[in-house]
# Entry
Amino acid sequence: MIVVQSAIHPAGDHATITSGLFSLFLGVTGFFFLLVLLFLGWAIWRKDRGSAEDRKLRVSVAGWAALITLGLFGLTLGSYFADRSLAFVGGGQAPIKIKMTAQQWWWEVEYQSDDPSRTIITANELHLPLGRPAEIQLEADDVIHSLWIPNLAGKQDLIPGRTTDMAVLPRHLGHYRAQCAEFCGLQHAHMALDVLVETPAQFAAWRSRSLQAAPAPTTAEQKRGYAILTGQCSGCHAISGTPAFGTVGPDLTHVASRASLAAGELPNIRIWLERWIADPQGVKPGSHMPRVPLSAADIRAAAAYLETLR
# Structure
């Protein structure tokens, strides 16, 4: 199931809290809006009744003021308890520790571990196990960004030089879409994040695969692509188990297993992979990925090798 940025279909505890607060505000303000219309109609209808109605009017105004006070007090209480609940991770299990770093214009996702050899670094894709809480540490390397996963949680800013955080507790399986919600430059609208909520078994299997190094190329074309990636692209990208160790761009160790390319801009299929390699500026103008002068055969070889990285 794919739900695209639906804040009215919460799939996690924290999104449910936000949705409930929205419903409370909508109900209270809608009620008062309806009363305003009713009183307006009543005032128009009785506008020529004279001063005999002055006492009733004073009583009505006093009652209206009291009702508004009660309404505002209710909204204040609702906001207070929602805010406290959003800060609570919950779940009854040890939370997964995740660090997300926003870049122009993609997301670096790091699954932290006390054992450095079990740390996973990926990009533009967030895997979460159903029913287990996650504590996400948020940072930005360049400008202010904002992470918004509407089905799972509210918005949280990522500010250079400052660490913020977000708690997530998914309750429904699914493939959800998140994005940057703070204008951050030319490609702000094309800075998406795939969020996959999986069963604990599926998540464990994904984690196990992600800890493995990149497989060795087998065909001649793949070997040619390997030489290109570890030679011309190694200054920006990392591929575990190879001489590529760059940190400027996304880690490519398991790039073929991701749902999309270029932070949600393209489907992860061969034809779009080749087009992205050939002309990244044509696909995503202003991105930091330069156009590398490669022949058509070299582009096909690079794509053939990248397709093995699952």
